Amino acid sequence: MRISIENFTKSFGDTTVIEDMSLEIGDGEMLALLGPSGCGKSTTLFAICGIHRMNAGRLMFGDTDVTEVSSQKRNVGVVFQNYALYPHMNVYENIAFPLKVRKESKAEVDRKVQEIAGLVHIGELLQRRPMQLSGGQQQRVALARALIRKPDILLLDEPLANLDAKLRLEMRSEIRRIQLATGITAVLVTHDQVEAMSMCDRIALMDKGQIVQLSTPKDMYENPSSDFVAGFLGNPPIAFLDGTVADGEFRLANSQVTLPVPSGIEIPGEGAPMRFGVRPEFFQPGNPLKVPGKVSFVETQGREELYDVMLENGAVLRSIQSQNAGFRLGQEVSWGIEQDRVLAFGPDGNRL
Amino acid sequence: MTSSNFRSWPLYLILTVISMPLVIMYVYLFVDTVTDTTAGSLIPDRFTLHHWRFLWEEPETGRVSIWTVTLNTFIFATCTTLINVSASVTAGYALSRLNLPFKRFFLGGILTLHAFPTITLIISIFLILQMIGLYNTLIGVILVKAALELPLGIWIMKGFFDNVPWEIEMAGLQDGASRFTVWWKLVLPQVQPGVAALSVFVFLSAWSEFILPQVLAPSGSAQVLSTYLSNLIFDDMKPDFNMFKSVGVFYALPVIIIYLIFNKQLMNIYGGGTKG
Ligand SMILES: Nc1ncnc2c1ncn2[C@@H]1O[C@H](COP(=O)(O)OP(=O)(O)OP(=O)(O)O)[C@@H](O)[C@H]1O
Ligand SMILES: [Mg+2]
After folding, report:
1. Residues B25 and B105 in one domain
2. What is the pTM for the complete model shown?
3. Do B170 and A84 touch (CB under 8 A)?
4. What is the rounded CA–CA span in Å between residue A328 and residue A350?
5. Pairing of strands A202-207, A30-34
6. What is the count of structural domains for chain B?
């Protein structure tokens, strides 16, 4: 079901957390709300499910205005960060609770629980208590409970934050699989860009209660609208070079090194500050546009190696290369930047 | 508790020596109720059930049967517990979770009342009960006792409710349950150790209450065991100390049993945790 948030404002007491936010989520889409801690992701999520009342604005599910509808009647499934399983009930009772509340018949409840348990692969765990489950299993139970009454919308608040790295990887694809299998409209809150990029159709990147950019993961990665977005996406992160415009080129701060500006952008006036963003994969030994520097940090990541190269003015560029390139710490190198992939940002941080 | 580099027997020895007089007193108390001792001797020499005759003999005229009194005490303690616990779980929840007006005032008030020496209120309570006609009735004492224990109960239950993750409630609402269902089916089971502990605590406190029944329901059909016991020693022309002790043991027995069964739950009151 389509969700549209129109001019949503939320404040707690005197502090306004979200101001005039608008967001449209398509039917069957999985959208990520991504952003740093405290930017208002959970607040937005809780407004969608009705836990928080909106101070201003309108919320539509499909063609229905649900702004004033209570949580119970919104038919939204929520998975909370700590799963919020009911500790005194076993897995079966946990999953069946939403149906019991609706007084469905025993046979019906049983059939649905078995069905959903099959979908999330917890068929053998039904008699256990939540305490006797691993994090990943609890996660699956929480998902099953959220999905059992066939909600129109599924909301996930940092569903993977409490899992270890390997489980996180597994549950990432699991949640996506289940979302696709049910065709449900889903909103995922996360501060992990990898999660957002790998699981969702679109990402809404938030900062200080505002949506800074809304686009597909690939587009957001390649065409960030600001240096904040560019810095938020990508692991290892993008490296920034600060400098100024000089003779239509980019001159590094405190240095005579100049770099050509990528084609097709509007160059600010002479002397104006400018920022270059270079992703690690576009700073490689083979590229033609060389910048000299010294290897200041080496990190082996298994398949790849990550190098930090300190330029003569103290700025740092990052490079990620396949294993066994064999560069050592302190070595003088002269690697090149892929000119067309450089991201240029103006003085206000916006993309040029 | 016991680690290999810590020898526990000296500690046990010291504890044993210190608690010896207490233990001897208790042993004597019990032994005296079933024996007779020749005057001047310390060692009892005859077994007898004579001191326990109050259990089966018809009471003297003007006296109430011990069983009536026991039933009274039981009703008194049970009703006090029921009233107190049901008020505490609802009030505690409200203070912990709901957005009440004057919440800080209520919380402060409860703490103050808890610290308040209730004995200073007894005269006014006495007058009020007499005015509304509940003087010398069981209902009157029950209401007063339940009310006086309320600040503690509310405070303890609030502590337990504070420890329940609010996500559980939110999840419940999201699952379509009403606020009441959420409270009854999801929240209350989480604080069940608190409810158990508070129930035992209030029951025992009511069972051993003396001042209130003594002042507010001193005689006749509303008597409880504590007042019966004190009447026994004050009224009689020739006090029978061994019978007094027997009634005392009879009176203390339920307390001891309850303590033995529920001591784990009682610990919870001080832990305040959700583990149980
Ligand atoms: N009940 C509340 N009362 C007052 N302020 C609140 C309340 N809930 C959230 N806030 C404030 O609103 C802001 C946004 O909170 P929110 O929980 O939405 O952040 P978030 O993006 O989910 O962060 P995180 O990633 O840490 O969960 C924060 O600054 C927070 O302090
Ligand atoms: Mg959050």
Report:
1. no
2. 0.80
3. yes
4. 36
5. parallel
6. 2
